[in-house]
Design a protein that fits this description.
With 223 residues, this protein is of the alpha/beta class. Helix content is 41%, strand content 22%. The strands form three sheets. The protein has a five-stranded parallel beta sheet, with helices on both faces. α2 runs parallel beside α3. It holds the Pfam family Response_reg.
Length: 223
């Protein structure tokens, strides 16, 4: 799972972005200012940094400079300013891309994936039993043969694969997938989608070995 550091001091934007990124299968840490961001970068390793230029504490340019001096983690600037100076200064500092606020979620996700691909930080494939999931191509293979999942079935599988070994409650699953592809998902339809997914990926859907039911708690993939 790709790890992203979001450096942004607007709580509403942080909440919205964290929600979007987690639904796309990313792990997200946040920092509201320059000092916290630099402390997180010292302690943790990230695949990409989403960085607001205008911060209440410090500024994005200083954070970008420190990041690039440390280990060249890819940086995408988030900026409300479309002025040429900010964009050029960011690129001169080593930024990999920039997105103007307000941004469209699908465009932002596409730019993140493009930067990860360009910088050689593609997510590796994930395997369990006879199943292989390739997030880069959004492809799923069973016994070497590609199987076709709906958008919501694929997102549900990705949530499970990104939380291997963890028990996921039905409430947590609903939180992760409720608005994917514009579909409304409630507790009853979640049951339907889990059954459909099992029908496609399990050798014996009546006795699943990949998506296991943890009675009274939820579901789990892997040990």
């Amino acid at each position: 799972m790709h790890r992203i550091l979001l450096v942004e001091d607007d709580p509403a934007i942080v909440t919205n972005l964290v929600d979007i990124l987690k639904r796309e299968g990313f792990s997200v840490d946040t920092a509201s200012g320059q000092q916290i961001a630099l402390e997180r970068m010292e302690k943790e390793k990230y695949d990409l940094c989403l960085l607001d230029i205008s911060l209440g504490e410090g500024n994005g340019f200083a954070v970008c400079r420190a990041i690039k001096e440390k280990d060249d983690t890819p940086v995408i600037f988030l900026t409300a300013s479309g002025d040429e100076y900010s964009v050029v200064a960011g690129f001169d500092m080593g930024a990999d891309d920039y997105v103007k606020k307000p941004f469209r979620p699908r465009e932002l996700i596409s730019r993140i994936r493009n930067v990860l691909r360009r910088t050689g930080r593609q997510q590796t494939t994930m395997e369990i039993a006879n199943l292989l999931v390739d997030p880069e191509k959004a492809a799923v293979r069973k016994n070497g043969e590609e199987i076709f999942l709906s958008a919501l079935e694929y997102r549900l599988l990705l949530v499970f694969m990104n939380h291997r070994g963890m028990v996921l409650s039905r409430a947590k699953l609903l939180e992760e997938i409720w608005d994917i592809a514009g579909d409304f998902v409630n507790d009853n339809t979640l049951t339907v989608y889990i059954k459909r997914l099992r029908d496609k990926i399990e050798n014996d859907p009546q006795h699943p070995t990949i998506i296991k039911t943890v009675r009274g708690l939820g579901y789990k993939v892997g040990d």
